[in-house]
Write a structure and sequence with these properties.
390 residues; Serine Threonine Protein Phosphatase 5, Tetratricopeptide repeat; 23 helices; elongated; TPR repeat; TPR-like_helical_dom_sf; TPR_rpt; CellSynth/LPSAsmb/PSIAsmb; repeat
Length: 390
């Protein structure tokens, strides 16, 4: 396949990471020769790198119209279809990757499609083959890490994510994925450090900052969460989610007056938002205002009776009042029907039934004992023991 001067120039720009300039050069080459196969392939790769799949598909179809057996173009198209749910394309990709002269893209596309269909062992084998063709390729390291994580090989996945981060030096995704694995391995402190590195790479990626703030709650470090929320608000002053996050972090930090003010600001922007109502109710309860807390929780529960947070918090509030157990049971019932495996709902239903139906209370307490949450499990253990002794 002959390569035009413009296509060669565009390819060099693309390797340097100058994607906009490369796109201009590819388009210029195609204006001169609409059938320039090298320019079509280069532009398709560029659009794929930009995650502009519709544009990439259009260019690839133009290439295939001229070269119906072009293996890489067929591979890209099959992978796009496979990732949209077309499992039939897996056989096409397998055949393309098995060709004696199969290139890197044919092999890596096969691995990515297998990964999208959760066929992790097969994806691992394909992506390892792709990595052998391009050692140190950051994207392949990332995809292989994802396949290993899907296969529950967390240590290997974490190692590859960190290798991918080192290979790319600019991409935040490998670091984000590494942090999530560290959380799964109960390495919360390390995960926070990894997320901070990711944020340095993409400081305007608010989803990263939000994930960092949420992890700060898990680590019991609300002050960094407050700072992260403020960073988002500075970038997006009208972002109600960032305001909510700021208020929640202030609540966790024990700054009730700040939390009350900030969450009311969030509620003014999203008056029907259940999460904001539930958070503000927590603040009002801690400030001794159960009446407003109950109104907020009742509004959230009425809006969505299956909401776990509203049902649990309202049930706990109701049970704190004389004769409130029956009302608590009524609140919990629809949420339990929608979420039959939620341990917190089972625990609260057991508490609400403890004085009226000990057999049913024991059943719910036993289900709560299966919780992965240590605090829920410990409460359920104590309740089950008390009910057994009655």
């Amino acid at each position: 396949m002959a390569v035009s001067k413009q296509a060669s120039s565009a390819a060099r720009l693309m390797k340097q990471g100058l994607l906009k300039d490369a796109a201009i050069e590819f388009e210029r080459a195609l204006k001169q020769d609409p059938k320039d196969a090298a320019a079509l392939l280069g532009l398709a790769r560029l659009r794929l790198a930009q995650h502009d799949e519709p544009a990439a598909r259009e260019v690839l179809q133009r290439l295939v119209a001229q070269h119906p057996t072009h293996p890489e173009a067929l591979s890209h198209l099959a992978r796009l279809d496979a990732e949209q749910g077309d499992a039939r394309q897996l056989a096409v990709l397998e055949a393309l990757a098995a060709q004696p002269k199969a290139g890197f893209f044919e092999v890596v596309n096969h691995g990515r499609a297998l990964l999208a269909h959760h066929q992790y062992p097969a994806a691992i084998a394909a992506l390892e083959k792709a990595l052998a063709l391009q050692p140190g390729n950051a994207q392949t390291l990332t995809y292989l890490g994802m396949a290993l994580q899907g296969d529950k090989q967390l240590d290997r996945a974490l190692k590859l994510y960190l290798e991918a981060a080192e290979a790319s030096r600019t991409e935040h995704l490998p670091l984000l994925l590494a942090a999530r694995v560290q959380v799964l391995k109960d390495q919360v402190g390390a995960a926070l450090q990894t997320l901070q590195k990711a944020i340095l790479r993409s400081p305007r990626e608010t989803a990263l900052i939000r994930e960092f703030a949420t992890l700060c709650f898990v680590a019991g470090a609300p002050e960094p969460a407050i700072k992260a929320a403020i960073d988002i608000r500075l970038q997006q002053p009208d972002n109600a989610d960032a305001i909510y996050l700021h208020g929640l972090a202030s609540f966790v930090a024990g700054k009730d007056a700040d939390a009350d003010r900030i969450l009311r600001e969030a509620l003014a922007k999203v008056p029907d938002n259940a999460m904001v109502r539930i958070a503000l109710a927590k603040v009002r309860r801690r400030m001794g205002d159960d009446a407003e807390a109950q109104k907020l929780l009742e509004a959230a529960h009425t809006s969505d009776p299956s909401d776990v947070g509203a049902a649990n918090d309202l049930a706990v509030l109701l049970m704190s009042k004389p004769g409130g157990a029956a009302n608590a049971r009524a609140v919990l019932a629809p949420a339990l029907q929608a979420h039959p495996d939620d341990a917190g709902l089972h625990l609260n239903q057991a508490l609400a039934l403890a004085d009226s139906d000990k057999a049913q209370a024991r059943t719910h307490a036993q289900k709560a004992q299966a919780s992965t949450d240590k605090h829920v499990r410990e409460q359920a253990d104590r309740l089950a023991a008390a009910l057994a002794g009655k």
